[in-house]
Amino acid sequence: MAQILTRAVLKSGTIERGSLPQIRRCCKMSLIAAAVLVGLLQTSAAPKALAEPATFTVGWSVYAGWNPYFYMQKSGILKKWADKYGIKIKVQRFDYAASLDSFVAKNIDACTMTNMEALDMPAASGVDSTVIITGDYSNGNDAVLTRNGLTFDKLAGHRVMLVQKTVSEYLLERGMVMSGQQAKLGSLKLLNTSDSDIAPAFLNNASNEAVVTWKPLVSQILVDKGVHSIFDSSQIPGEILDLLVVRTEVLKRPDGSGEKFAKAMNGAWYETMQRLTGNGAPQAEALKVSAAASGDSVDSYKSQLKTTALFSTPKAAADFTTSPTLKQKMDLVRQFCFAHGLLGKSTKSVDDVAIAYPDGSVQGKKDRVKLRFDAGYMQAAQQGKL
Question: DSSP code of 364?
């Protein structure tokens, strides 16, 4: 810079040659000042960059197996594990259908959902997703409830309230099929109803004679002595799984933050499970806060947990996720989804939306994998390597 200025000044002929040292000194001082300024700006910017760790949002909805996410945040367990990995994690409550829509729209990074919705929502929409926690299976939490003595053989022509395209519809059909009423499936009148509205809507209108939903809503509806359960998920164990699912692109972020997120979530989840299924004051607090997540009493929440087959240890979760049983159950679910057109309008075969398992096997076309089960994080928790 000094040489350029010197050449320009000499060319103009307006400054004596003896003044050049002064010009050089001025230019040198300016360069030093500029360098110091740049250094200061970089130094002041560095802490700001460090103060903005990767942030992740997890969506959850009211359900016995998912209420612990509320406790996980309130107790500080989630923050402890997020801090360990230098990230931030937020949990956000949704109505169930809205949580799935938000996940598919990529407004949240991870979401609690069942195995069926993981397949017929994000996977069917082309969103590649990975299961990082196998939380439980419904063991009586989901139920078909009716009034006036209605049974499966009498349901034809009657309205059935449920959240359509979810496990409620799956449960209803499994009940019809297992009762020998498959031929009457087309005669059912399904009334799509939000989970936030379904209990009061059913209870406040006696003309509604059938409803399919899950606890705690099932418990609220069964307070009406004229309502009875004619089928529940305990009759199809392991078919309705409750999972934590993350978009694969988030999990595989080049900066490694997605891997940290998965590890932090597993660490926080199994610490939460340890408290929830333990004893003493820690368990009492975990039960109290988890119950409060859905406005339930502790006794009501304990009742819900009795019909929730929790994989409360990472070993139990990893063992199920790597077992042949999972593949068998998922095949039933994917066949149902395809038969009902839930895998996308352009899907011509059940194999067009494929599922990958921890052993490397794939159900469906290997170039069409959109749902993945990854037991690695659960196994790391089991081995104490988180």
Answer: S
Note whether 336 and 329 are within 8 A (CB).
no
Residues 286 and 205 in one domain: no
The tokens for 335 are 């066949």
Rounded to whole angstroms, the Cα distance separating 355 from 299 reads 38
Q: Is 86 helix (H, G, I), strand (E, B) or coil?
A: coil
Domain extent, residue 103, equals 55-139+239-382
Could you read off the pLDDT of 38-67 as tens digits, one per residue? 454 554 444 444 558 999 999 999 999 999
> Which residues on neighbouring strands pair with residue 229, listed in sequence order?
145
Rounded Cα distance, 280 and 288, in Å: 12
Is residue 96 within 8 A of residue 107, CB to CB? The reply is: no
pTM of the model: 0.83
| Residue-level pLDDT at 36 | 43
Q: Which residues make beta-bridge pairs with 244?
A: 112, 133
Q: Are 130 and 244 a contacting pair, CB within 8 Å?
A: no
Q: Which two tokens stand for residue 143?
A: 């139920």
Q: What CATH number corresponds to the domain at position 210?
A: 3.40.190.10
